[in-house]
Amino acid sequence: MVTTGDLYTWTFTVASNAADGKAALSWDATAWSGSSAALLLLDISNQVLMDMKTADRYEFSFVSGKQFKIIYNKERLAARPYPAGTGLS
């Protein structure tokens, strides 16, 4: 848990004892639906950016060491398509 701020990012690595293959991340999108802040999921290796407020699942090809980033930005992202720190422009 962190205090409320303007921008936070969390990077995590997906691990499994299963063989490489199809996998999914899922979350409760309704918890954020009324918020004006941006909540994004970035698939780092595939450079896929998802709005976690409008989707509740992300399917991907799992490989050991796959990394993701969750980005919380208090401001709406109308001024630029991707927030600073994502590696996307």
What does it look like?
The protein has one domain. A hairpin with a 4-residue loop joins strand 3 (38-43) and strand 4 (48-51). It is mostly beta strands. Strands 1-6-3-4 form a four-stranded antiparallel sheet, with no helix packed on it. 7% of the residues are buried. The protein has strands at 7-13, 21-26, 38-43, 48-51, 57-62, 67-73.
**How many domains make up the coordinates?**
1
H-E order: EEEEEE
Q: What's the total number of strands?
A: 6
Computed over alpha carbons, the radius of gyration is 14 Å
Give the strand order, joined by hyphens, for the main sheet: 1-6-3-4
Helix content: under 10%
Summed over residues and divided by their number, the pLDDT gives a mean of 82
Unreliable stretches (pLDDT < 50, length at least 5) are none
| CA distance, first residue to last residue | 29 Å
What is the overall silhouette?
elongated
Q: Structural class of the helix and strand makeup?
A: mainly beta
What fraction of the residues are assigned to beta strands by DSSP?
A: 35-45%
Helix tally equals 0
Largest sheet: 4 strands, antiparallel
TL;DR?
This protein is mainly β and about 90 residues long. The protein has strands spanning about 5-15, 20-25, 40-45, 50, 55-60, 65-75. The model has no long low-confidence stretch (mean pLDDT about 80).
Which helices and strands occur, and which strands form pairs?
Blueprint (H helix, E strand, L loop, with lengths): L6 E7 L7 E6 L11 E6 L4 E4 L5 E6 L4 E7 L16
Antiparallel strand pairs: 1-6, 2-5, 3-4, 3-6
Q: Main attributes?
A:
mainly beta, 4-stranded antiparallel sheet, 6 strands, single chain, two-stranded antiparallel ribbon
